[in-house]
Amino acid sequence: MKVLVPVKRVVDYNVKVRVKADGTGVDIANVKMSMNPFDEIAVEEAVRLKEAGIATEVVVVSAGVAACQETLRTALALGADRAVLIDSGDTDLQPLAVAKLIKAVADKEQPQLVVFGKQAIDDDSNQTGQMFAALQGWPQATFASKVVVADGKATVTREVDGGLETLELALPAVVTTDLRLNEPRYATLPNIMKAKKKPLETLKPADLGVDVTPRLKTLKVSEPPKRQAGVMVPDVATLVNKLKNEAKVI
Ligand code: AMP
């Protein structure tokens, strides 16, 4: 069984981003970039399926600028077998365009399982996996916290409001990862070295026959309002008094 894992290069989660002065977006010049954390979880899950003898090959795919190669090499160092880079240059790739690109790759690769992150932490869209599943007409289980693959089916536990839901999906299927699915491993130095020799194919959106023209226009990006400074209160009675009479929340 082949598993396909789409991985996105995003601003590292430790970086505090700044909005550009003209309000057109976030300044990512000279900022540390990393693999989207939910995609690390997706790679880990796919590699564990391979280690368990369930998956035979793990293919990772990333769409974006040429530097996405670094993200793919990281995924290869974590245990993926092969990588596909869809080099779209500076084009702003929106979720529908990415879903179409991944569909084109999936049509070629014929995976039985595609594991997306539940969302990319840059735009927080939470759309690509769902759009891909819809384009393919495949079953999907989003926000997975447990995945068991056996007998041509995936049994997926999902984190839903107030509890857990367990679904059974016929393969081929789409899963999107939640935080508690697993704890990704770190890449070891020998594996980082080995990853340099693993195959990485580069394609352009036109090679896949996909039109990636943006459908959405960003009108404005702005900082959240600054928080007011807090005040120290001497005792519980003062706190209760303030909550009652000033904030009027109790
Ligand atoms: P989003 O819908 O943007 O929140 O992203 C959800 C998931 O789709 C991510 O966790 C990735 O698995 C995948 N994805 C989004 N954008 C890309 C991209 N440019 N290249 C590869 N995978 C992507």
What key attributes describe this structure?
nine-stranded mixed β-sheet; 250 residues; electron transfer activity; globular; electron transport; 13 strands; alpha/beta; binds adenosine monophosphate; 6 helices; ET-Flavoprotein_bsu_CS
Bound molecules: adenosine monophosphate
Provide the spatial order of strands within the biggest beta sheet: 11-10-9-12-8-1-6-7-13
User: What kind of sheet is the major sheet?
Assistant: 9 strands, mixed
Instruction: Indicate the multimeric state.
Output: single chain
Number of strands: 13
Q: Residue share in helices?
A: 25-40%
How many helices?
6
Please indicate the percent range of residues in DSSP E strands (runs of 2 or more). Answer: 25-35%
List the secondary-structure elements in sequence, H or E: EEEEEHEHEHEHEEEEHEH
**Structural class designation:** alpha/beta
Radius of gyration: 21 Å
Roughly how many Å apart are the termini?
57 Å
Low-confidence stretches: none
Mean pLDDT: 96
User: What is the general shape?
Assistant: globular
Please describe what this structure looks like.
This protein has six helices and 13 strands. The protein has helices at 37-51, 68-77, 95-109, 128-136, 189-195, 236-245, and strands at residues 2-6, 9-11, 18-19, 26-27, 33-35, 57-64, 82-87, 113-117, 140-150, 153-160, 163-170, 173-177, 200-203. The strands form three sheets. It has a nine-stranded mixed beta sheet with strand order 11-10-9-12-8-1-6-7-13, with helices on both faces. A hairpin with a 2-residue loop joins β9 (140-150) and β10 (153-160). The termini are far apart. The mean pLDDT is 96. Residues 6-8, 36, 38-39, 61-64, 93, 95, 98, 116-117, 119-120, 123, 125-129 line the site of adenosine monophosphate. Adenosine monophosphate binds next to α1, β6, α3, β8 and α4.
